Each structure stands twice: as structure tokens, then as C-alpha cells.
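Batch job 17 of 40 flagged for manual review because the log was empty.
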Amino acid sequence: MQQTDTALSVFDSFFKGNPTIKFIRYQWVDYAGILRIRILPVSRCRHLLEHGSALEMSPVAITSSTITEFMPDVVPTGCDILIADFRSLKSCFYAPGHASVMCYVSEDHGGFGRERCPRTLLERSMFAAGRGIKCRLSLFV
């Protein structure tokens, strides 16, 4: 609950200073290195935060390729869950009325959780490279 409260306070603080933003781009990077997005109205994002929910979507959020084929041995059933990292919330200077937030991807199917999430793997690599000093990933996105 504390994590939800923290995210909600970051969310509210951001929108207090940016009242013209109407949409949030949930962004994540897939295995092909492509930045993918889902655009939601601000009201829907706040609703998800208030209820401690994440955004569920198709089970190929990170495993689809650029040639529309699935990775071998991946069963496209179940759902993937986008978990917004509101520390990375920022307005999109290139799209007035939009903000963006980077997301972790949790694979609900197969019991992978966030183990294969590119953002999680990058965060772990940065932690290891920093010799135990946790780096703020949101500074690099």
C-alpha cells in the first residue's frame, strides 16, 4: 500500500504542475529493442493507481518480434502486466497534452514475473556495475 501511496503522490504532484496533460503514454521496450506504447486517459491511470492495479494486456508485450512471429517455445496465452514506474513520469514536449511513463513488464503466464523484463534486467546490470550502489534508472529514460 505504501508503494501505491508514493506513486499516487508523485502522480498528483506532477499533474498539479501540468494541468493541460490529458493522456499518459505507458512505454516499455520489447526484446527487439522497440519502444512500445499504450496511451490511456489520465483519469484511467489515476483509477488504476487508486485501486493498486496494473495495466493488463496481450501476452506478447515483450516477446513479439518485428516480423510478427512469436519467439520459439513461448505460448501466447495468459496476460502480461505493465507496471508503471511513476518516477519516470514526464511531459512529452513532442506531443502536447501527453506525458510518458516507463513500465516494467511482468509475464503472468509461465511464472516468469519480471524475471525477463528488459527494464528489470537493465536495472540489475546497473546495480551490478555500480558495485552495489543502486542507480536511479529513471534518470536514463
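Reviewer: the log was empty due to a logging misconfiguration, but the result itself is present. The chain has a mean pLDDT of 79. Unflagging and moving on to job 18.
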